Input
Amino acid sequence: MWVFLLTEIMFFGGMFGGYTVYRNMYPEAFASTSRFMEVTLGGINTAVLITSSFTMALAVRSAQIGKKRALITLLICTLVLGIVFLGIKYVEYHEKWVDHHIPGPGFHYDDPRYAQQAQILFYLYFAMTGMHALHMIVGAGLIVTLIVMAARNRFSKGWYTPVEIIGLYWHFVDIVWIFLFPLLYLIGHHP
Amino acid sequence: MSTLYQQPAVGERPTYLNVDYGWKSWLFTTDHKRIALLYLFSITAFFAVGGSFAVMMRLNLVSPEGLLFNADTYNKLFTMHGIIMVFFFLVPSIPAVLGNFLIPIMIGARDLAFPRINLLSWYLYMIGGILAVTAVVQGGVDTGWTFYAPFSTTYSNTHVILTAVGVFVAGFSSILTGLNFIITIHKMRAPGMTWSRLPLFVWSHYATAIIQVLGTPVVAITLVLLGLERVFHAGIFDPADGGDPILFQHLFWFYSHPAVYIMILPGMGVISELVPCFSRKAIFGYSFVAYSSMAIAVVGFLVWGHHLFVSGQSLYLGTVFSFLSFVVAVPSAIKVFNWTATMYKGSITFETPMLYAFGFIGLFTIGGLTGLFLATMAVDVHLTDTYFVVAHFHYVMVGGMVMAYLGGIHFWFPKITGRMYPEGWAKFAALIVFVGFNLTFFPQFILGYLGAPRRYATYAPEFQVLNVMSSAGASILGIGYIIPLVYLTWAWMRGPKAPQNPWGAKGLEWEQSPTPPPTDNFEHQPIVTEDAYNYAGEEATLDR
Amino acid sequence: MMHPVVPVKTYVFVFLALITLTATTVAVSKIELGEYNFVAAMTIAVIKGSLVVWFFMHVNRSSSLTRLFVGAGFFWMAILIVFTLSDYISRGWLPGGTWWK
Output
């Protein structure tokens, strides 16, 4: 699974690279967009995801000591938190839609000095958070699979590998968000 | 002492080929050997498709005004030739066919670590290939296989997204194969098979797998960004909207340069097997060859900017990339020296695989050295986007990789099929390929030096003689590829049965696995007690 | 995977550390530090990420080979970003290099 996660690091790395380059080129434009990022929602989402990593780590631990009920409960908590994250994301995307910040023909940015560059930022915003959300949806599906398997007594103290490796995947998705949050939400954020 | 497998005198024993004949047993197989054959057939088909585009291009270039096609069509031809050859032939070829077949056997395992993922890799490859061919049939793509923005994102009105999705899917096939190889080589070696006893074929595939895992995701995300940009036009690569086209080139070449090492390292692995066998001598400098494979994999990631020398990239960074490009040539040179040193005072015989190995060593050296011309920034200003570049990469890819592929196919043909191919025809075909290849591509070095640009459907009249020579060579080369197709197919069906070890080669696949292997590869769990390439001190026992 | 079981307390501490660091990074972002805002935010993010990798993903108990792979992954992404970024930064050192300023 770590070898697979290496590929994921490079996959997201490409987008981080693009972001870094454009932020270096257009620092003021990027800073101006931070007014439209809801830091509160982003911060809550970060906390949600961190908590879900916490419950996931506890779930792996429960599998290791053979506690089936705790395992299933914690997996369900992780799943619920993941869905909460996606829900908040949906609210944010809807805001962007209403504000005409989705790149494409409908895009409109109120500061004409930065309109072009802002569109690039929003494109990267949607690309990066969208790709992240896609990975979360896949992760949620995998957790459902784990819950079903656990309910059917497929895991034991001696063998719980799927829990461990899907745990790794979930933590990785969390780490991506840990970096996305400051880069997209906290740029030049002034009171 | 390793035990030699003795073929039974009577009865047909079960092999991976005859154990089941239904179509489901092939399409749903998890046997790495059958999957390797699935790849063999599909890769050959894609090679034919890509080759036919090359034929059309060279026919067009017989006349300075372009004999058959207008510029728009010609753009599509070279694009599709490149895309199919790079992504659907060169990148998978040796790893997916020979690597899949041989790696478990060479390390003494029964199969790869994840056999079902192996099958998934093949299906992804086929889906990607079908998408790409669909794009071709629908009218093609004309952006060049390099998909440069902003033409590809904004101005081209061909099937860019469909092709990009096809390549994206095939990329995942490559990633999963690489992942499979890494885990297999780490975890599934037989007792006694230490890292320092691994055949160099396995080392080179390990290095290749690392490149596949670390590099391919970047081209994947680049294609995603390209596709999204085509749909949403946010301007990420379009200067009219504040974007930078050079960023696309950085992201694209970050994968595509290591990709060429994905293509050549397995070929070098094949040569490392052929040369000791046909010199009856252990490889010279085993550790140097093994470590230089790893060095190529690592340093190969640090040189991509040499594709961007004239793009507007910073000249300071260009200097750094130029220096690193010289550095990356060193491990390849080490390998060439080691192969030559292996042959020195060896007992050399000239069977077909060895002919292809000789071809590889000579042509790859020429191709590699011309790469150094291109790595020199000042010279590159004159040579970039000319036929010199085209000749350089065809020397390493066709003169190198394809020759290694053919050499490997011939060498392991008896192991894979249990039959022998006709040696006379094979040598003849090798000669045709060699002559045809040089006639096709050597004139292109001269053309490039004289300034003839690449990717042009027409050219200045003074270049006609060289172009015609090149096209003539291409037709000879084409014949050289068709001949093996014919006799190998014939030999598989009606060729004489092969002995257990026709080459007297060392290695678990020859000494402990039957020819052809049973589904589980071995009759008994192999235990490795001696180093690889232990040719010294034994009679040359060619069992023909 | 025959590892000793990690006590719940460890996970709780890591969790609380992560939440605290999140709050910190939001608070720091509200203070005007110029260029150092970015440095601070990234430093905190790296610490948070490292905590997740080290404790939640059990790299603290993994073999050296696993650690090598983990390190290699992040190092490779660093290669991509550093080299590419240095192009944009060093283009300004020659006249006419940057068209976006």
